[in-house]
Design goal:
The structure is a single chain. The chain is mainly β and 483 residues long. It has one domain: Porin (Beta Barrel). It has 5 helices and 27 strands. The longest helix is centred in the first third of the chain and has 17 residues. It is globular. The protein starts with a helix and ends with a strand.
Amino acid sequence: MRLSSLLSLLLMATPMSLASPWIGTNDESLHQDLRTLVEFQVIDAVAISYPVPWRGIDSQLRSLDTHALPEPAKRAARRLQHYLKYRQQDVLRQITSARVASDPVRFDSVHGSYGQEVQLSHQAEVVTGRWSAKLSANMIDDENTNLDNSYVAMHLGEWIVKAGATDQFWGPANDSSLILSTNARPIPTVGLFKSSAVASESPWLSWLGAWYASAEIGKFQDVREIEGAKLWRARFTAAPFKGLTFGMSWVAMWGGAGQPNSIGDLVDVLTFQTQCIDELETCDKELNTTTGNHIAGFDLAYSFKLLEQPITLYGQRIGEDAKDYKVTDNANLLGISTYVGSFKLYLENSDTNIACVGDGNTATNCYYEHSIYQSGYRHYNRAVGSTYDSDAKQTTLGIQWRGMQGRSAMLKMSQIELNSDKGRPSPVLTDSASEELKLVSGYYQQPYGNFLVRIGAEYQDRDLGEKHATDTSVFLDLRYVWY
């Protein structure tokens, strides 16, 4: 379908009632506001997954006395309260957005541009009774159209059944995630999601504190080595102690052309059955591997106050491949964040340049890779996990600012090392088999009436071995909200 036809369908079919069941599906900065309130310990919820359901958080927001809050928390609370008040009104809200970039932004962490130079989108979201839905029509660089970030969902008590392809981000990091980020286009899934991210009223579960869980099954849509490869993913997060949140994540690739595709085969994947490597019928026990391509791990975030300012320590450890049921290929992410006045500062490091199989092996080129699923843990040639893909080390210093009346800005500076062994380069490399670079990127956004304008840039100082290069790209995002 051409985009004009999709837009016409949206305008004609959308009922006159709109609200989002999740915080940040129309504006990711609202999720940053929620994390601010959690880190200042004025909201009791788990917020290290994106998006987060409104249910339970809305009542806490209504009872907040914003006058008594520190400035960053006050601004975050008032923005969320304003949006909460708006979303309860019986109005039709549609959003038209456009993006123009001089070159693809190479390392976009949480904004979901997917490396596109030009994108035009129109979306509408509606809630009526138990049902909610969002239809998003998008046209990208080559005039192809898609329905990324569209969904339909039904609320069933404490749970939501949802089908669609929506952006998600798993983990406490401010820059990227080792297992699921918005670096790649979303994968269509059908799943079950908890309808709140606050403490349960059940006496059997109250010891968990605030908690959230989800489980999904989906299918990759791009051209791959194994066409139609399928995906299972699940996540659980909880905050059993004040200031402490932990999460557990699990993803498994399975099925597809020439691979076992039945429900029984999925059960084999979920129960960690084994098979011979290289698809042999029989083999020694030493040559067994777990069925499917599993990627799993955990993350932690701990917030405490020092001189009335929250400091958050966080980490993520995600592994793939195992020997004797012990995960051998573990990548790590560590970070710290705090607030200075109206600014949030964070320092973050991640390393996916890890040795394969363990036992002192120094070979790399295995993270996000698989002997059968040779397109790797990627969608449309971009890593579903880390922005920096496999065999990469990076350290990032970032500054986020949220001002009055919807103004915000971000600046980050990164030192990045890509594929130092020069073997099997990942798709993030463009001009050489390895690369070291210094990256500076940022944006400023401000509303003007119904428009939200974001202008940004990315500068790269690149060491390509035998040559040196610098690249600069600028972009402009425009968003218009129809009231």
